[in-house]
Specification:
The protein is 54% helix and 2% strand. It is an all-alpha fold. The protein has one domain: Orthogonal Bundle (Hypothetical protein af1432). The N and C termini lie far apart (31 Å).
Amino acid sequence: MIPSDAEIRALHREHAPTREMFELVHGHCEVVRGIAEQLLPHTGRELDADLVRAGSLLHDIGVYRLGDAPYVRHGVLGHELLAEEGLPEQLCRFASHHTGVGLTADDVRRQSLPLPVADYLAETGEEELVMYADKFHTKSHPPRFVSAESYAAHVRRYGDDKVAIFQAMCGRYGLPDLPTGPR
């Protein structure tokens, strides 16, 4: 039940409110897929490459539903969208469990995040690899690649424990070979 690239692209087109938004979000997801696929052979783990591919391409689909909602909600909105489309929970989780280096119920409460109080943590190697690959590209204007040092500095504002989690992922998956400049 893992959709093809063409089926995922069609889902993005169907839900994107504008062509520009489609190009931004789907383009970012394709970059994340490329990063994840680059790192996959170096994980030393038996991960499902097709699941990593699909999870990478679907992880940010909730951005299309944001409207005026805070950005942190895009994961849960994506989970809902994918569930409504009949995709299995295994794929829906890529949307709701990729934010930052994972959000705990304590994070949600402590930061007063507009999310249902729950843990939003990667539980499989595939989920963690997609979460990690996502840290190396941003949908900012213009979209750009992000170095490990830049991401670590960014996540430090949420606590040294978040930096440690990111650094542990760097150790597990290695650093991607990223182009310099915008996407």
